[in-house]
Design brief:
The protein is an all-alpha fold and about 350 residues long. The chain is about 75% helix and about 0% strand.
Length: about 350
């Protein structure tokens, strides 16, 4: 039973959220079966809808992996949203101001810039936590606002396209754009990069000394220090990785979908990623599957509204309910563990 809890808890949380969501749909005057059929049929079974799901899954997966790698070391990266913005900015600068390169060089260079910009934005709270003891939740959260407003200023002033009716940059070079992997859809190669990143992290966590060190620091930093592991260096490393992965989410939004930098780069992917990472219970595979679920919700929301007359806000309510139920399941699981420990001690 203990082995099954990490698997069953997210499934029960999602099922409970969908059940309560069905009640909300009924209150809205619609048929839950019709609404959910339209939602998931559009997002998972139609060619364009599935492509749209993969497109939305890409930034969610990258940023969720960033939150996950920080959690492994006991750090809470709430700054994914800002790191997305910085990554998008880095790739945009390479796409705009480094012309004349072949795609085989231009694309990796733009991706590297996005990773580095995001990594720097992750290193700042990592350094402050490791060397100055400043709480990373506060610093990552506040850095979100700095990043969003920095990008807003840039696209309204020096980076704004000539004659643009709203704040956005000129188009990046064709050689800096990711290719489409599903014809006649929005799905681009960014999803393949995100899945490769997930595979690398899976190997890192399970098969490498560094993965063991990250887990040791997260589980017990005092014991890790006693074992001659550098806790400070590990904290900075995971925050750099977290920021870099979220930065790649922003890169893919610019290079694979929008081809320019907009004032609103992300519709809240960085905050959804926090929920996804917690819902996955520390599992890389769980992050992949949960990112797909959240992406499907976002992808099919508008179709559900048109087909069943259900407001899009119901989808966001389902996301919030999923997080709420997983939090409840974690509390229940903790109580079960405590009770089992007391029973063993008494016997």
């Amino acid at each position: 039973m203990k082995f099954l809890l990490p698997i069953l808890s997210p499934l029960i949380a999602i099922a409970s959220a969908l059940l309560v969501g069905a009640i909300l749909i009924i209150i809205a005057g619609a048929n839950p079966f019709t609404a959910y059929t339209a939602l998931f049929q559009e997002s998972l079974s139609t060619h364009f809808g599935f492509g749209n799901t993969l497109t939305k899954m890409t930034p969610l997966l990258f940023t969720s992996l960033g939150v996950l790698v920080a959690l492994r070391a006991g750090q809470f990266n709430i700054g994914g949203e800002g790191q997305i913005y910085l990554g998008a900015l880095g790739s945009t600068l390479i796409g705009l101001y480094v012309p004349g390169l072949p795609a085989v060089i231009h694309i990796p260079l733009a991706l590297l810039a996005g990773f580095v910009f995001g990594a720097v934005w992750g290193w700042i709270p990592g350094y402050l936590k490791a060397m100055r003891g400043v709480n990373e939740v506060i610093t990552t959260l506040l850095l979100n606002y700095i990043a969003v407003n920095l990008v807003s200023y840039l696209v309204q002033n020096p980076l704004m396209a000539p004659g643009a009716p709203s704040p956005y940059s000129p188009l990046i070079a064709n050689t800096a754009r990711l290719s489409i992997i599903l014809p006649q859809s929005l799905a681009h190669a960014g999803i393949l990069l995100a899945l490769i990143a997930a595979g690398i992290l899976w190997v890192l966590f399970r098969r490498s000394p560094l993965g063991y060190q990250i887990a040791a620091v997260g589980f017990n930093p005092i014991a890790a220090r006693y074992a001659h592991m550098s806790v400070e260096r590990t904290i900075m490393l995971v925050m750099v990785l977290a920021g870099g992965l979220a930065g790649l989410a922003g890169s893919c939004e610019v290079m694979g979908l929008k081809f320019r930098l907009f004032e609103q780069v992300s519709p809240g992917y960085g905050f959804d990623a926090i929920a996804i990472a917690f819902l996955s219970r520390g599992s890389v595979v769980g992050v992949v599957l949960t990112s797909l679920f959240f992406a499907a919700l976002r992808s099919g929301a508008n179709v559900m509204q048109r087909s069943a007359g259900v407001p899009v806000t119901v989808v966001y309510a389902i996301q919030g309910l999923t997080v709420l139920f997983i939090a409840v399941s974690l509390a229940v699981e903790r109580q079960i563990t405590i009770q089992n420990s007391k029973f063993k001690i008494q016997n």
